[in-house]
Amino acid sequence: HGTSRINEQGHLEIGGCDAVELIRTFGSPLYVMDEALIRHRMRQFMEAFESTNLPFQVAYASKAFSTLAMCRIVDEEGLHLDVVSDGELFTALKAGFPPERIYFHGNNKTPDEIQMALHAGVRLFVVDNFVELSLLEHLAGQAGTIARILLRTTPGVEAHTHNYIQTGQEDSKFGFDLASGQVQEAVRQAMASPNLRLEGYHCHIGSQIFEVEGFRLAVQKMANLVSECRESFGFTPSILNMGGGFGIRYREEDTPLPVSRYVDAIAEAVRSTFPQHVPEIWVEPGRSITGEAGTTLYTVGTIKEIPGVRKYVSVDGGMNDNPRPALYQAEYEALLANRALEEPEETVSIAGKLCESGDMLIWDISLPKVKTGDVLAVTCTGAYNYSMANNYNRVRRPAVVFVRDGMADVVVERETLEDLTRNDRIPERMKKEHV
Ligand code: LLP
């Protein structure tokens, strides 16, 4: 995928950089991000929408992978940015991302976060619930501003991979319930407030979605809501945010649709259900922008074979840099980056180095005969890996490198041992002379 290929040495090469060299230069394990592929994905979304001739806006969902350099790319490519916390907002602002292209999501924004976002002048808030609605109204009033908002709805459509379910009332912590009339009440309240300006609706139906039916259904539900609230309150939304969730190919058998198929389906549904007053369509993909662009390089350490049972190959990372297999039974592909042309010879399972039996990255993968010192490349790790990384066992988070046209730039330094204790404090009464 992307700019990956196998070079003359039989090594994996990404963005013109030899993976074995990358490990030598920057250490192991290492997150490598293919910058060209990230940009390509962003452009695919923009171009797909442009060709629908409908008004649109594409935001990148920070939660998938957010760093200062990533925010620079999002800015350069002209996308908007979805943030869910003060940390994601801080990162964006620090990177010089224009606040008028940032919007704030989340089901429990704190007063501090709301004030920070109001002060920064973010484009809008996606309001999730009644408590937030009154809190925001109060804080906007205090700040002497008008907060622009979308209302997050739970449309009762939930899609995952290749199926979707429809429920009357979705049992979710997110958003105003559609079926029970909560959204309608929120519209009424928002319109009555001089400190809030309601601009539209939001819904998000799931993640890693492989079909368009769920999006179509969600548009229909939104259209019903729109006509209902137009009749009841005379409110016509100028924005309809359909969330993210577009699937990617983690493994050979995954069958995501091309970006344009999702976009066309949403656009078609909007066109046919909104004969007049077509709202601006917003989407906020995360995984489909960065997921396939990421590769994690590890060094193989110990190897244990239980005769007739299994061969465990341990690498120098694991569930701290990629918690997805342990959390979601997520499955990944991998190859030996230093012997990428060799034929598979054995079936092994890739274990992490953390102290937990569940710390397995891949079960049963065919590889050439694996040796200590080999470089293992796990592909498709660009979304929800670095962003969900942790320090379990006080293992340091790897560095992140962006590669492009043979250039490799560190965008996140590897954590140091000192970083791990930076915020630790020893109470006076426990102090030892030399510490
Ligand atoms: N918008 C909203 C409101 C969301 O909740 C999400 C993801 C997105 C956009 C972006 O969705 P994407 O395009 O990335 O599918 N940690 C999980 C995924 C959690 C997704 C949460 N919300 C994973 O590793 O699979």
From TrEMBL:
<keyword id="KW-0210">Decarboxylase</keyword>
<dbReference type="InterPro" id="IPR022657">
    <property type="entry name" value="De-COase2_CS"/>
</dbReference>
<dbReference type="GO" id="GO:0009089">
    <property type="term" value="P:lysine biosynthetic process via diaminopimelate"/>
</dbReference>
<feature type="binding site">
    <location>
        <position position="328"/>
    </location>
    <ligand>
        <name>substrate</name>
    </ligand>
</feature>
<feature type="binding site">
    <location>
        <position position="384"/>
    </location>
    <ligand>
        <name>substrate</name>
    </ligand>
</feature>
<feature type="binding site">
    <location>
        <position position="324"/>
    </location>
    <ligand>
        <name>substrate</name>
    </ligand>
</feature>
<feature type="domain" description="Orn/DAP/Arg decarboxylase 2 C-terminal">
    <location>
        <begin position="31"/>
        <end position="382"/>
    </location>
</feature>
<dbReference type="InterPro" id="IPR002986">
    <property type="entry name" value="DAP_deCOOHase_LysA"/>
</dbReference>
<dbReference type="Pfam" id="PF02784">
    <property type="entry name" value="Orn_Arg_deC_N"/>
</dbReference>
<protein>
    <recommendedName>
        <fullName>Diaminopimelate decarboxylase</fullName>
        <ecNumber>4.1.1.20</ecNumber>
    </recommendedName>
</protein>
<dbReference type="InterPro" id="IPR022644">
    <property type="entry name" value="De-COase2_N"/>
</dbReference>
<keyword id="KW-0456">Lyase</keyword>
<feature type="binding site">
    <location>
        <position position="245"/>
    </location>
    <ligand>
        <name>pyridoxal 5'-phosphate</name>
    </ligand>
</feature>
<feature type="binding site">
    <location>
        <position position="384"/>
    </location>
    <ligand>
        <name>pyridoxal 5'-phosphate</name>
    </ligand>
</feature>
<dbReference type="InterPro" id="IPR029066">
    <property type="entry name" value="PLP-binding_barrel"/>
</dbReference>
<comment type="similarity">
    <text>Belongs to the Orn/Lys/Arg decarboxylase class-II family. LysA subfamily.</text>
</comment>
<keyword id="KW-0457">Lysine biosynthesis</keyword>
<feature type="modified residue" description="N6-(pyridoxal phosphate)lysine">
    <location>
        <position position="63"/>
    </location>
</feature>
<dbReference type="InterPro" id="IPR000183">
    <property type="entry name" value="Orn/DAP/Arg_de-COase"/>
</dbReference>
<dbReference type="InterPro" id="IPR009006">
    <property type="entry name" value="Ala_racemase/Decarboxylase_C"/>
</dbReference>
<keyword id="KW-0028">Amino-acid biosynthesis</keyword>
<feature type="active site" description="Proton donor">
    <location>
        <position position="355"/>
    </location>
</feature>
<comment type="function">
    <text>Specifically catalyzes the decarboxylation of meso-diaminopimelate (meso-DAP) to L-lysine.</text>
</comment>
<dbReference type="Pfam" id="PF00278">
    <property type="entry name" value="Orn_DAP_Arg_deC"/>
</dbReference>
<feature type="binding site">
    <location>
        <begin position="284"/>
        <end position="287"/>
    </location>
    <ligand>
        <name>pyridoxal 5'-phosphate</name>
    </ligand>
</feature>
<comment type="pathway">
    <text>Amino-acid biosynthesis; L-lysine biosynthesis via DAP pathway; L-lysine from DL-2,6-diaminopimelate: step 1/1.</text>
</comment>
<feature type="binding site">
    <location>
        <position position="287"/>
    </location>
    <ligand>
        <name>substrate</name>
    </ligand>
</feature>
<feature type="domain" description="Orn/DAP/Arg decarboxylase 2 N-terminal">
    <location>
        <begin position="37"/>
        <end position="290"/>
    </location>
</feature>
<dbReference type="InterPro" id="IPR022643">
    <property type="entry name" value="De-COase2_C"/>
</dbReference>
<comment type="subunit">
    <text>Homodimer.</text>
</comment>
<dbReference type="GO" id="GO:0030170">
    <property type="term" value="F:pyridoxal phosphate binding"/>
</dbReference>
<feature type="binding site">
    <location>
        <position position="356"/>
    </location>
    <ligand>
        <name>substrate</name>
    </ligand>
</feature>
<keyword id="KW-0663">Pyridoxal phosphate</keyword>
<dbReference type="GO" id="GO:0008836">
    <property type="term" value="F:diaminopimelate decarboxylase activity"/>
</dbReference>
